[in-house]
Amino acid sequence: MAVTRRAAFFDLDKTILATSSALAFTRPFYRGGLLGRRDVVRSAYAQFVFLASGADHDQMETMRRYMSDLVRGWDVSRVQEIVAETLDHIIDPVVYDEALELIEQHRDAGEDIVVISSSGTEVVDPIAERVGADLSVGTRLVVEDGRYTGDILFYAYGEGKAQAMRDLAAERGYDLSQCHAYTDSITDLPMLESVGHPTAVNPDAELRRVARERGWPILDFRRPVTMRSRVPSVDQGRSVAIGAAVIVGIIAVGIAWHLWNRRGRGS
């Protein structure tokens, strides 16, 4: 008789991390010459909007289009260098202690830990490894001749996340009806609906409403800690492989421009 396997699927931003994993790199990219001053201002506002209320579907699509224009032609090695130099300083202090506790509980229960995020694989993978995940899924960008083309191979967002979960279930034998999922955004509703045990974490207003209507658990995380204080150290050399697709999240600066213009028009 086949043994049923289970997994716990975790979103990254505002679920494991108390920030946007990619927007956090705005200032290092500016200092490294990849972003202009206007982009930094937009990103600061976008970070505020993201942390305060999240992003809806239209805003996520705006971010995706903005990203394609913004990163086209960026040198991958330069992005890797900047991220490798700044990852620990930027990301390490903002992991939720409550998320790490949940990860430990699921691991002790014999379940695989899967981090799935719309940020780029090269930022998702090393963070996932650091918090003890078994697998990770992120957005993948196209690279030609060492530079970004602006095209996206796979966008880990919305139904894309749910499909990735179904693919992993088929590949690894997970019974999704016995699996858990944790996320903060209504745009991840397909992710939550894919499992038998969905939980809203730090949910935006719409997801909080849906979770209450459906009787789903709601968790509010409040305790950011350093990963080094909770997770055994890993080979720091792997940080060099953190990639450039962290800039996928930089598309979120498009939220600021989109909202600023919309509000300026009185809509």
Explain the overall architecture.
There is one protein chain. The chain has 267 residues and is an alpha/beta fold. The protein has one domain (7-264): HAD superfamily/HAD-like (Rossmann fold), CATH 3.40.50. 45% of the residues lie in helices and 17% in strands. The protein is built from eleven helices and nine strands. The strands form two sheets. It has a seven-stranded mixed sheet with strand order 5-4-3-1-6-7-8. Strands 2-9 form a two-stranded antiparallel ribbon. The radius of gyration is 18 Å and the shape is globular. The N and C termini lie far apart (59 Å).
Give the secondary structure arrangement, pairings included.
Elements lengths: L6 E4 L15 H6 L5 H17 L3 H15 L4 H16 L3 E2 H12 L3 E9 H10 L4 E10 L2 E8 L4 H14 L7 E4 L5 H5 L3 E5 L3 H10 L3 E2 L4 E2 L1 H4 L22 H12 L3
Parallel strand pairs: 1-3, 1-6, 3-4, 6-7, 7-8
Antiparallel strand pairs: 2-9, 4-5
Describe the structure using short key phrases.
about 270 residues; alpha/beta; 11 helices; 9 strands
Describe the structure in brief:
The protein is of the alpha/beta class and about 270 residues long. The chain has helices at about 25-30, 35-55, 55-70, 75-90, 95-110, 120-130, 160-170, 190-195, 205-215, 225-230, 255-265, and strands at about 5-10, 95, 110-120, 135-145, 145-155, 180-185, 195-200, 220, 225.
